[in-house]
Amino acid sequence: MELQAGDTFGRYELVSWLGRGGMAETWRAQLMGAAGVTKSVLIKKVLPEYADDEAFISMFISEARISATLSHGNVAQVFDFGQVEDEYFLAMEFVDGKPLDKVLKRALKAGLGALPIPVAVFIAMEMCRGLHYAHTRTDSSGKPLGIVHRDISPDNVLISYEGQVKIVDFGIAKAQLLRGFKTEPGVVKGKYLFFSPEQARGEDVDARTDVWATGIVLYELLCAKLPVEGPPQTVMMKIAHGQVPAPTTLRPDLPKELNDLVMQALAPDRKRRFESSHAFGDALAGFLHAHYPRFSSLSLANLLRVLFRADLMHEGRELTVPGAFHDEAKKWGGPALTKLLDAPPPEQVQTRRLPRAAAKPPPPETTQPDAPTIPTGRSRRALYGASAVGGLAVVGASLWFLMDARSPAPVAPPPVAVVEASVPKTAAVEAPTAKAEPPPAQAPVEEPPEAVAAAPAEHLEEPAPAKPAHSTRKSSVRTVRATQRVQAEEPQPVPVVEEPAPPTVVAASAVQEPPPAVEQSAPAPRKGVLGLLDSKRQEVQQKVTSLVKTKQQQFSGLLQSKDYDAALEAANDCAKNNPGVPECHLMLGDVHAKMNHPRESTQHYETFLKLAPADHPRRARVQEVLGKSGATN
């Protein structure tokens, strides 16, 4: 069944869609109790297309059986398991924070290079606590369950805004007492970049496999790079032979003591590794307390609030960061973190922007099916380049229109000249300059998306026509002005994309494909200079249309790779350079919805409806989304 926010799902009321993985989707929901008592939970529901997949359902049920027995501060707890209309689901603890992979990505964007040493060590230490608890779980008779997670990676670790570290997703964990859950010889499960040597060889695994994976996670947090990368066969061959470079080869400033701890966790022979996650965690705790005695979960919470303060402000939340943390962090964070801490809060940056009059991009999407990762740096530069070319095309179009308006004959331009409606007043100033990628150190000061999208707002008015040069032409100039005013009031045709882009596979997303070409009766071609201007205008419009189509395809790829920051930048670029193109606002609405920004999403959807023609293929879907949003507010 297709679900929407506000729907009832068993005993739960769905609040917002959080994401979609390869075989399941997640929702934030509320458990509705008696007398209005509610509890926030996360619903993990099997996708309908996999409801009949016996192998996956078996693994999903196994996850429920294992997770339901776990209750630890470093493990996300499972509260409920069941079926609603033949769809299996898990109801688990909702962690108010971010996945560890997003935390690392934001730190890199903020210019930190990698996570500060005490932050990385503390996270790995807390992971060890949760894993050791799972490894040592017993049944009612005291017999060990033999649980091994086998899929430890940054995206399966959640960091809360309170500084808690929670391990999630025991979907492929192995418990020896679960019948039918023993892996066949030679079969491997998990993410190959985090495989232990025995996992890479397809051998049986034990708790020391999770020790290895925790060491890989710590390596990535410290160095911002995995020790071994490449295609599966290359990675697994190097791991199986223990070809792992020391962290100091990538980060020479690491203390030798910490480097040795990481390398012991990554020993190819599991007998030489830490004998348990508890032993590894204790070693990390000794290092942390010896070198950073004041570091605690509150330190991690404050860093997270600084890194994601723009997101929090955008959600209308203000989580305070005490001044004492600034002094503490500057001692172990380096100049990049000092610059981040000294940066003005988002509200102050927003005051430098122009008034918020422009429409904002639309919403949906939270997480999509696993898709190939798009290299963030290159893809963003490509998007900026496309935006710059699009801006130049708009400038060219505006020059041709000005020439046409000054021609002696008061002949209205043909309907095909669509670009007039989408030329902002500032296009001649802003468009030629390609948008440079901001230096990483300034990224954390980035403003909420609405501030970015609002920039061209005050320039939406058409410039007033220049006064006539000769009084003898006053009558004809007035006629031209009147004709232009009438044209400005009439709805302008939308740039069309001749070939639809691949649909976005996202529930609740309104963007799937560009609008089909709108057929118009072609006017008789004009001759001479006017005919040349017509052909130039059509050529410019074709370029703009092609650029918008390319932008949509790149935007769709960024959404599928869950790089919402880059998707938002791409959509903002599109709207800034082409404010009259409805597809740009449709993209903005979608990405804001995915980022759980309902207000901005609604604004951009409404702008899309104002700009899009009545027969636009996405109008009905957007109206439906807005209708449901209004019903739930």
UniProtKB/TrEMBL annotation:
Disordered, as annotated region: 336-378, 429-499
Residue sites binding ATP per the record: K45
Transmembrane segments: none
SUPFAM superfamilies recorded: Protein kinase-like (PK-like), TPR-like
Low complexity bias: start-end ranges: 489-499
Record-annotated Protein kinase domain positions: 12-292
PROSITE patterns with a match to the protein in the record: PROTEIN_KINASE_ATP, PROTEIN_KINASE_DOM, PROTEIN_KINASE_TYR
Presence of keyword Repressor: no
Keyword field: ATP-binding, Kinase, Nucleotide-binding, Transferase
Name assigned to this protein: Protein kinase domain-containing protein
